[in-house]
Write the structure tokens for this entry.
Amino acid sequence: MNSDQRRSPCLSTLYQQYLNDQDAARFISQVSKRYTPGTLQRLAGHPERQVRRAAVLALGFLGDYTANHTVGLALLDDDRTVRTLAENSIRSIWTRAGSEEERQELGIVIRLNAAQQYKEAIRRATELVGKAPWFAEAWNQRAIARFNLGQYAESIRDCHQALEINPYHFVAATNMGQAYLELRNPVSALESFRRALRLNPDLEGVRSEVVRLARMVEDR
């Protein structure tokens, strides 16, 4: 039995405790004392689903962008709870690339988008991608702002760039499909939505769009 397997019952116990008391701070503290992020990534592929659930949840709290691949694969896990936890965790992981300053700048862009201040979001995101062109989430956030201003072709280009950097970015693939719909390009929209589903099969709204668009394209 390897070291990960010997330690996995402890991780399961910590996870069950978290389910009982919903004390995230305690869970994070106890897991961080016992496991490195690298070990958590290995445990995300453990045969026991309870261990995978615990590891993916913990990575959402403690993992940085290096966990993107591991949690991206967990979106395809046989266990629905693992998939749900992975979707929540990976969204957090996407914001943890780069330096502390770059992450703070991204946070500003996200808040600007939430406040519907899209022009300022584009300006700040453009500055960020100029300094950190590998920061996929910065491209995605600019794509969101551009979409909301009706700049659909520009939004699609930013979504493409986000996916080029981060091939697990199902949100960018979904948003790209929506932009193609606005441009009345159902074939490209269908391709984008299918790509999103390959990355995250639990996107039920996207699945409905795939069914609708597939029928539309076939009837042409």
User: Anything to note?
Assistant: The chain has 13 helices and no strands.
